[in-house]
Write a structure and sequence with these properties.
two-stranded parallel sheet; eight-stranded antiparallel barrel; alpha+beta; 250 residues; 36% strand
């Protein structure tokens, strides 16, 4: 929307310049050259600012980069897990907390997070690889990830994990997502909630600050505190008995 507004302003400015120069110089060659030069300069400046501002300013990204809608701390909850045994299999991965942040070097966004057990203990950690892909309006993103199971209770199985994640915003602070694991036969469907100051107040967790949650140690502490507060609806809406999976380590 802001891009359209900027182009409209540039167009109006071009008309104003043309009228003013015409008034001062008439239809002379000098007048025409000044009109072209000034108009082209303004348009070029606007295009340069569109590129420069998002790379150097968080506010610029909010205004000009639709991908920035995903920036921040997110809670992944209401997990439904599918495997070869069907839906709602017994798996330790009950919720997750992750951060989406901008990387100036690549002009892209990266994801870093951890999954937790029902007790709030770290089960796995993961990060995005390569580049994240976004819908044109910035309200959906997908990325490949690599991760490691850190839950010692799973024993000697291979801890390495890779896969694909797709996220979609339903409004500014909530959405849905899906994870497809490559190494194991497992699919996770979940809901998204943005962790904001208002969210922290609602869950009586104001001892945590948003800026500090970029630190994975602080996110682990938040997970523990959230479970203790009763703020995690585990397998929300799940029906029927839960079954142990042969591929529970995801």
């Amino acid at each position: 929307m802001l891009n359209i507004f900027g182009r409209a302003v540039s167009a109006v400015f071009a008309v104003v310049v043309a009228v003013l120069v015409s008034t001062l110089y008439g239809e002379s060659i000098t007048g025409k050259l000044l009109t072209v030069l000034i108009t082209a300069g303004v348009v070029a400046l606007f295009e340069v600012l569109k590129i420069w501002l998002p790379r150097h300013s968080a506010r610029g990204r909010q205004l000009l980069d639709p991908r920035s809608q995903f920036t921040g701390v997110w809670l992944q909850e209401g997990v439904k897990q599918y495997g070869s045994d069907g839906v709602n299999i017994e798996a330790p991965n009950r919720f997750a907390i992750f951060v989406v942040g901008y990387q100036k070097e690549t002009d892209n966004y990266e994801v870093d997070g951890a999954a937790y057990t029902a007790e709030g203990d770290e089960h796995a950690r993961w990060e995005s690889t390569d580049v994240a892909n976004f819908a044109k309006d910035g309200r959906a993103m997908s990325y490949e990830f690599t991760g490691t199971i850190t839950n010692a209770d799973l024993g000697p199985e291979d801890p390495r994990r890779t896969g694909f994640c797709r996220l979609k915003l339903l409004d500014g602070d909530s959405g849905r997502g899906r994870v497809d694991h490559v190494a194991v036969n497992a699919v996770l469907l979940f809901n998204l909630s943005r962790v904001t100051t208002k969210w922290l107040v609602a869950h009586n967790l104001l001892q945590f600050k948003l800026d500090n949650l970029k630190d994975p140690v602080q996110r682990n502490r938040l997970a523990k505190a959230l479970v203790a507060s009763g703020g995690i609806p585990i397998l929300e809406g799940a029906a029927g008995p839960r079954k142990r999976s042969q591929t529970a380590g995801f």
